[in-house]
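Q: I'm building a small set of examples for a reading group on sequence design. Run inverse folding on the following structure and report the sequence directly after it, with nothing in between.
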């Protein structure tokens, strides 16, 4: 039997592998989306994936989870959640981020 700590570590590892896989070949898009997210956060104080999707179309054949790569590394701190306004998300909760520079 595995411990919760082991399960969490495995979950984090699988998440990181999935993010790497979905961004493969789209690194330029990810960098542009990161720059946009930073710009929005500096202007408004916070940003979510909805605001980035609003201004950037996903690369062709991209997995929508590619947005995970945008907020995965860098100076981001999750400060809450909100319901997504994107119809395809069915109002699921999404993270709200602020820069922690």
């Amino acid at each position: 039997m595995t411990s919760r700590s082991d399960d969490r570590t495995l979950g984090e590892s699988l998440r990181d592998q999935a993010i790497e896989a979905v961004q493969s070949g789209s690194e330029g898009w990810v960098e542009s989306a990161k720059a946009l997210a930073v710009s929005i956060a500096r202007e408004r104080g916070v940003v979510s994936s909805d605001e980035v999707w609003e201004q950037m179309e996903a690369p062709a054949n991209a997995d929508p989870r590619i947005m995970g790569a945008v907020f995965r590394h860098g100076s981001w701190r999750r400060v809450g959640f909100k319901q997504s306004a994107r119809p395809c998300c069915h109002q699921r909760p999404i993270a709200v981020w602020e820069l922690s520079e």
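The mean pLDDT is 86.
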